[in-house]
C-alpha cells in the first residue's frame, strides 16, 4: 500500500475517542505496521494488544482513514506499536484544507524542555485552514519549532476557543517594518480532532459566504 511507508506521518486515536496523536511509521512488514509511540501535548497514547485504533494519513490532496488492531509492542532502537494491516483504506478529499484569508489574533508560546510555564506572545494569523495557518510575528522562529497556539473563532451564535499544538513547516519572506521586522511562518496544526477541524471549516465557509454577500 503506497501511502503506508517508512517515515510516513500518521495520526492515531483509540477507537471512539476524539483526540488524534501524531506518530511515524517505522516499518511495514507483511503482517504488521510498526509505528512510534504516539504523543500529544507530551502525553503518550497507551495501547494494549486487542485495542482498536483509528488511523489517518494526511497527503497533499486527500486524507486516508483506516482502522487497525493493536498487535503488541515491539522494540527496535525505540519502543514501537505493531498494528494490523488494514483491510480497507478510505480516501477523503481534503475539504478541511480550504484556506481563508483573514486577520485573526493568535496567542502562541514556543515549547521548551522542562516543566517551565509557556510564555505567550501575540501574533496575527493572515490565513487559516483545517490543517494550519500562516502566522505573522516579530519573533524569529526556526522550521521544526513546536508552538502552543490559542485562538478564538466567531461562529455567530457562539465563539469557539481552540488550544492546539502547531509546528513551523515553512518560513516565508520577512517584512522590514519601521520599528520591528515581522516574519511569516507556515504553521501545521498537530493533534486537532476531526470535530475541531470540522469547526474550523465551518468558520471558513461561513466567512466565505459573508464575503460573497458583500460583493
Overview of this protein structure:
The protein is mainly beta and 215 residues long. It folds into two domains: 9-93, Electron Transport, Fmn-binding Protein, Chain A (Pnp Oxidase, Chain A, Roll), CATH 2.30.110; 95-214, predicted glycosyltransferase like domains (Thrombin, subunit H, Beta Barrel), CATH 2.40.10. The protein is 10% helix and 53% strand. It has one helix and 16 strands. The strands form three sheets. It has a six-stranded antiparallel beta barrel. The chain has a six-stranded antiparallel beta barrel with strand order 10-11-12-16-14-13. The N and C termini lie far apart (46 Å).
In short:
The protein is mainly β. It is built from one helix and 16 strands. It has two domains: 9-93, Roll (Pnp Oxidase, Chain A); 95-214, predicted glycosyltransferase like domains (Thrombin, subunit H, Beta Barrel).
Derived from helix and strand composition plus strand pairing, the structural class reads mainly beta
CATH architecture of the largest domain: Beta Barrel
Q: Round the mean pLDDT to the nearest integer and report it.
A: 85
Strand content: over 45%
Helices and strands, in N-to-C order?
EEEEEEEEEEEEEEEEH
Number of domains: 2
CATH topology of the largest domain: Thrombin, subunit H
The shape, in one word, is globular
Compute the gyration radius: what is it? Answer: 19 Å
How many strands, what sense, and barrel or not for the largest sheet? 6 strands, antiparallel, barrel
Find the count of extended strands (DSSP E, 2+ residues).
16
Helix content: under 10%
- CATH class wording of the largest domain: Mainly Beta
H/I helix tally: 1
Amino acid at each position: 500500500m503506497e501511502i503506508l511507508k517508512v517515515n510516513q506521518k500518521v495520526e492515531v486515536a483509540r477507537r471512539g475517542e476524539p483526540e488524534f496523536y501524531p506518530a511515524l511509521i517505522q516499518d511495514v512488514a507483511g503482517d504488521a505496521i510498526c509505528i512510534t509511540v504516539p504523543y500529544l501535548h507530551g502525553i503518550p497514547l497507551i495501547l494494549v494488544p486487542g485495542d482498536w485504533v483509528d488511523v489517518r494519513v494526511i497527503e497533499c490532496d486527500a486524507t486516508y482513514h483506516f482502522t487497525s488492531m493493536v498487535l503488541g509492542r515491539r522494540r527496535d532502537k525505540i519502543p514501537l506499536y505493531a498494528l494490523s494491516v488494514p483491510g480497507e483504506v478510505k480516501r477523503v478529499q481534503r475539504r478541511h484544507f480550504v484556506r481563508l484569508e483573514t486577520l485573526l489574533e493568535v496567542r502562541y508560546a514556543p515549547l521548551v524542555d522542562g516543566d517551565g510555564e509557556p510564555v505567550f506572545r501575540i501574533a496575527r494569523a493572515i490565513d487559516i485552514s483545517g490543517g494550519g495557518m500562516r502566522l505573522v510575528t516579530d519573533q524569529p522562529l526556526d522550521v521544526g519549532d513546536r508552538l502552543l497556539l490559542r485562538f478564538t473563532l466567531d461562529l455567530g451564535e457562539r465563539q469557539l476557543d481552540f488550544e492546539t499544538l502547531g509546528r513551523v513547516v515553512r518560513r516565508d519572506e520577512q517584512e522590514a517594518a519601521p520599528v520591528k521586522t515581522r516574519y511569516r511562518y507556515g504553521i501545521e496544526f498537530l493533534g486537532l480532532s476531526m470535530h475541531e477541524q470540522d469547526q474550523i471549516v465551518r468558520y471558513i465557509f461561513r466567512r466565505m459566504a459573508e464575503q460573497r454577500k458583500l460583493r
